[in-house]
Amino acid sequence: MLLSEERSRRAREERAPDDPSSRSRMPQAAFLLSLSAPELQRIEPTGLEQSLRLLDLPPAWVVVLVVLPLFAAAAWIGYGREQISRAMRLVLMALRVGAFLLLGLVLARPVRVERREEVHPASVLVLVDDSASMRRSDSYGDEALREDLEDASGLSPANATRLELARSVLERALLPVFQRGGYQVELFSFAESASPLTDLAGLSGRGGATHLGDALYQALASQRGKNVTDAVVISDGRSNGGAPALDAARAAGVAGVPVHTLVVGDTRAEKNAVLELVDAPTEALEGDELGVTVRVRGRGNSRGERAQLLLEELEEGGERVLAEDEVELTEEGERIVLIAQSPQHLVGKNERRLRVTLPPLEGETMVDDNRLEFSVHISPARIRVLFVEGYPRWEYRFVKNLLLRADKNIDVQCFLLSATKDFPQEASAGLESLTAVPTRREDLLAKYDVVILGDVDPYAVSPDPKKCEDFLHALREFVEAGGGLLFQAGEFHNPRALGSTPLEDVLPVQLDATRMLAFEGDTRTEFRPVVEDPAHPHEILRLDPDPDANRALWEDPSQGLRGFYWYMPVQKVKPGAQVLLRHPSDRNVQTGENYPLMVLGYFPAGRTLFLAVDSTYRWRYRYGDRYLDTFWRNAMRWLALGRLKSGDRRYRIESSRSTYDIEDRVQLEVRVLDEDYRPSDEPTQRVGWSGPDGVEQELLLAREPDRMGVYRGGLEVDRPGVYRAWVDGRMDGRVQRISTTEFEVVLPSRENQDPSPDPENLRLLSAKTGGKALDLAHARGLASEFPGGEERREPISSRLEDAWDGWHTLLVALLLLGAEWILRKRVELL
Length: 830
Known about the structure:
Layout: H1 2-13, H2 28-33, E1 41-43, E2 48-54, H3 60-79, H4 86-107, E3 110-120, E4 123-129, H5 143-153, H6 162-180, E5 184-190, E6 194-196, H7 212-222, E7 228-235, H8 245-254, E8 259-263, E9 272-279, E10 283-285, E11 290-299, E12 306-315, E13 318-328, E14 334-340, E15 351-357, E16 371-379, E17 383-389, H9 394-405, E18 410-416, H10 441-447, E19 450-453, H11 465-480, E20 484-488, E21 509-510, E22 530-531, H12 547-555, E23 572-573, E24 578-588, E25 593-603, E26 606-611, H13 626-644, E27 651-655, E28 659-661, E29 665-672, E30 684-690, E31 696-703, E32 710-716, E33 721-731, E34 734-746, H14 749-753, H15 759-769, E35 773-775, E36 792-802, H16 807-826
Parallel strand pairs: 4-5, 4-7, 7-8, 8-35, 10-16, 17-18, 17-19, 19-20, 20-26, 28-34
Antiparallel strand pairs: 1-2, 2-3, 3-36, 5-6, 9-11, 11-14, 12-13, 12-15, 15-16, 21-23, 22-24, 24-25, 25-26, 27-29, 29-32, 30-31, 30-33, 31-32, 33-34
Helix pairs in contact: 3-4, 4-16, 7-8, 8-15, 10-11
């Protein structure tokens, strides 16, 4: 009988694993009251269960219909006809019935059962989406939903990310429910996979993809053998890889674990305009116009829908529109270049804050990608140029005169090697004339930002051969330290004489040893260079702010610039270099590409530019110095920026990339020179940085073990947007930022392709397992699914001990029988 009762009890406690709807949901108090009388028990918190059982008790109907009536009849027969008072008869009958019951209880064999149990507390799995799409913000156009979400989270939905809302609702609405019900909460974060989570503060939204199916499989597998009663998934529902979520739902259903889902984000039909920053300068000179390139995409919008794109200057008094353009919204996206002119009232400012915006579309669900903000460091420093030429060719004469008079921000010193000793070398007003070519590294670094190397034999820059060698090495180190070097080809020496010299590696092109003697083309036929990317020209080639007019200048034979008759062929472009102009027809048979005419490169921090032509002065035809001046200004500025990034030219900070995915670690590098322009030997370098929220923080970089003056370190970022890093130093008697860099943090490509919520995916997941599917604002609706009392108990051992075989049973019997005997004697029935 004990075994049958035990099996019966266990059957009531257990639930069928394949039928979630059949689970027992009784609270613990109701569970105890439901036990039958022979099973009254005391449950210890330690898992020890003690109970009193009647092993030989007949069935209840025998007890009620046979045994108890017999006991009552025997008592009545003994006292029913006696001549005693009614009260005394009832007392005597009660004592005899008590004796009969005691006898019956002994015959039923009462025993004490002591059973040890293993208690498995009820566990609930909580999986929180930690992918990058949870960093998005939504507009929540439904006012009622917005109010409910604010009530549930305590946050303003308009100013909070999906992840912040999910974390707050979990803390405020769900965890207290689990705690009241005695559930053990197993937290997991998931993106590409599920990871145990000990603290909600560990949620960062860095995952590059969302694999919901894989995460659910892994969470269930990690809890195998435990009493898992439910799983809760908090996500935007957009799964973009891994196992199908419905396959994982079937596995959860077979295990008897219902999966409840809470969808995060605005679930209205998606309509979204996306603004992406393609290119923007981080450094510029005072008075420069700034070119900003963006790409505009549209999702869920009607065909042909257009939006107004604005470029604004952010000033203390407010915003000022600098440029605007109308763009059609398409899935592929349209690339737009906006030009910001430099107004006079910004003279003296060392920074410009710019913003590109798309006004929100009607019904747009996500608006955090409609705006881009970034800053441009403005350097008031003058560009210092050294122009070395071998002989007075026409190109030298025009370019030298242009640099000497055209730009107040450019200081130039010229040295013509073919001039006589008494010839006064030309220089900008206020600068001394050179008496020799500077050949020392210290002189180049201290006095110049850009060197223009014309048709020069490097071994003729000085009568002293050692100084010629010093010049080559110094020029190479000058570029390595961030200086700009322009190679302009000539018919005699440049670049032929640079082969097998320290400058050969600095050149952005590889020389052709088979064609180094002379130009083999027809010098009587004019050719017009072809722009490598005319729709999006490099800033050096942007001669007119209007893209169509600029393209016409390069391509239109009737209105454009004049062409050339001669060029210097090179073998190929080195890896990492960028071609700006090519020959329209002459092709290198080895590479299959047209010969490059203008190539820019980096070595490694400095900037280089190779011009294969020597007659840009021909652009004066029709237009005078207008476009020739613009081209050479642009070239000088671009070449000088490697040096001008540092306020005192001894510090330079850079990030390894201009764009990072949010899960990437940002790498910063600082190069520091001492007062003698030698690499610093300090062990650390302190830098500052700030994110989209503008909060300034510090980071300590360690020096590279094998590279003096180079400091590197990384930082973790937690949200998309534009970030800044800088080095502070003392200039002009006060501490200020002397070198800055910017980089953008974006969502990973898979997460950014479609970050809209997918409530249908989560609804199907819940339906397959018998769970509930709700939106985050109504998370409290899950409370009814967690009433508590769902711990599972498994017996380990049991022990039986007779409860009647003791002095207490004999004592009770004696008391009952003795009392009856005394009363019988008192009424004279003996």
